[in-house]
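FW: tagging you since you asked about this chain on Friday. Here's the raw sequence from the shared folder, copied in full. Didn't touch anything.
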Amino acid sequence: SRLCTWVGEMFLELHNATYTTQAEIKKANRHGEFLLRDAETAAAVADFLGHSEYPSEELLRIWKRFLLNQFHDILPGSSIEQAHDLAKEYYKDVQQSAMTIFN
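HL: got it, structure written out here
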């Protein structure tokens, strides 16, 4: 009865971001967010204007690869070295694949 208890959701008001030991991964993640948003927009406009068909299967593949790196150990940098290396490969693939959509 002397211990503090908490009822409901615990929200940390000052916890606005994730720090990381892997700045390269964090930067690639942010770049990928903008790049995929822009690639989807460009693809939708090109499809609407009749210039090219919307690449739904390729975008789905790219998004799945990108979102795999959203795993809770990758962005803060607490995963093992092999996971960091694989994440970097995936971000490179995401960037290259998304850029082909613009061409």
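FW: The radius of gyration is 19 Å.
HL: agreed, and The CA atoms of residues 28 and 92 lie 8 Å apart.
FW: great, closing this out.
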